[in-house]
Design goal:
The protein is an alpha/beta fold. Helix content is 35%, strand content 19%. It is built from eight helices and nine strands. The strands form two sheets. A seven-stranded parallel beta sheet has the order 1-2-3-4-5-6-7. It has a two-stranded antiparallel sheet with strand order 8-9. Helix 2 (61-77) links the parallel strand 2 (39-49) and strand 3. The protein is globular, with a radius of gyration of 18 Å. The structure holds zinc ion (ZN) (2 copies).
Length: 275
């Protein structure tokens, strides 16, 4: 907290810089924008896609190492203006536990979002043509994999629980009957809660075709009903223009679903913010 500065946005706990393959702006540009916007606790969470770690297109080793060197001076530079934290969006950890553990041991991440962007043997949900592959077949694999991740348990919050719907329902306009997944989703949420982990409200959906947060109100309520407490909120911005977007709506949704606080992480410890 800094009494001299008026913070307008309490958090942005999910966003990407050019240290991610799909990010547009440098870490410095993102931090400067966070400062302009009056974001109080800003957590950088660049991609670390475990199953794509050695890909020729974007070998992760070097950018990940670079980020670890760039962050500490940036955190120092913005002290008192933006409280910057060093996080990561860890994709597909269960595809290679050994590599995942090596990476988590090598870097001092303060906050780890666990995400599944693709199930074993398939490309990213965002690349698939759902007229050619049965979305329900993939959704079953997806939720099974989320449960495996939750049971493994070495991250802080589960990223965008309903990620595939961004493409299946949003981009392709395919209506999925989600009641068939209520059981496994409840199981995933209960496992996270048992392991002292949380979920996020990812506000990217509000500026995309799907038009709702990931996950939407139904699942935020379900999480609360099951005893969920830890909730983070992030824009999933991949450029300065999207930073902080939808955070106010995300907070309003959290309140509406019965939460009176949200969290950000400081060295793997959840810190509550009253809302
Ligand atoms: Zn991305
Ligand atoms: Zn993601």
């Amino acid at each position: 907290m800094n009494a001299e500065k008026d913070f307008l946005i309490p958090v942005d706990s999910h966003n990407h810089s050019a240290q991610s393959p799909d990010g547009k702006n440098t870490l410095g540009e993102m931090a400067e924008r966070a400062c302009e916007l009056g974001i109080e606790h800003y957590t950088v969470t660049d991609h670390l896609e475990i199953n794509k770690f050695y890909d020729e297109e974007f070998p992760y080793e070097e950018p990940v190492r670079q980020s670890s060197l760039l962050l500490p001076p940036l955190i120092e530079e913005y002290k008192g203006r933006v409280d910057i934290h060093y996080g990561v969006e860890l994709g597909q950890p269960v595809h290679d536990y050994e590599l995942t553990e090596r990476m988590l041991d090598s870097y001092d991440y303060e906050f780890i979002i666990g995400s599944c962007h693709m199930v074993k043997g398939w490309e990213d949900f965002y690349c698939l043509d759902y007229r050619e592959v049965d979305p329900n077949y993939l959704l079953r694999l997806y939720f099974d994999e989320l449960l495996e991740m939750a049971e493994w348990g070495k991250f802080d919050v589960l990223g965008h629980l309903t990620y595939p719907l961004r493409y299946i329902a949003g981009d392709f306009g395919i209506n999925i009957s989600m009641t068939q997944y209520e059981g496994i989703i409840s199981e995933i949420l209960k496992t996270l809660i048992k392991n002292n982990m949380g979920i996020e409200i990812n506000t990217s959906g509000l500026r995309q075709k799907i038009g709702v947060t990931l996950p939407d109100e139904h699942y935020v309520r379900l999480y609360r009903r099951l005893g969920g407490e830890i909730l983070t909120i992030g824009s999933d911005a991949h450029c300065t223009a999207d930073l902080g977007k939808g955070i106010a709506e995300g907070i309003a949704l959290a309140k509406k679903c019965g939460f009176d606080r949200i969290y950000y992480y400081d060295h793997r410890k959840p810190i509550a913010i009253k809302i």
